[in-house]
Design goal:
This protein is elongated. The longest helix has 12 residues. Helices cover about 45% and strands about 10% of the residues. By secondary structure, the protein is an alpha+beta fold.
Length: about 150
Amino acid sequence: MTEREYARVFSRYAGEEGDLIPLLQKVQERAGYIPEDAVGRISEFLKLSENRIYGVASFYSQFRFTEPGRHSIKICLGTACHVSGGQILADAVERDLGITDGQTTEDGRFDFRRVACLGCCALAPVVQIDDVIHSRVTVIRFKEILDEYK
């Protein structure tokens, strides 16, 4: 984000500790993630330590500290998905793409996140790529789906 963009975002807030989460959300909305320099700027604006900001942001799964890929993959690991093979799918993503939870492939094509629940328990195991939910996914089917995005 540019200096002007930061100024525009910060102008909407009073600079109080309660502004932290809305500020993080706004920065991520604009940048796609929470860049390292944003943490420093928020720290100065709110007069909070960078450690405090990282502590709060890392607690919530909605925030990310790495630039997202062009396509976001989420593997559900809720109970229904886990017992139906969600963990096996997550392991396949890590192995096939060479990334782990929260990372982005070197070419910037995919990012990957393990999530607690996507709310589609009857369709388990579930994979979400971008905004599309894929149901009853097997490792073989996942590879076929992934090929559509390459």
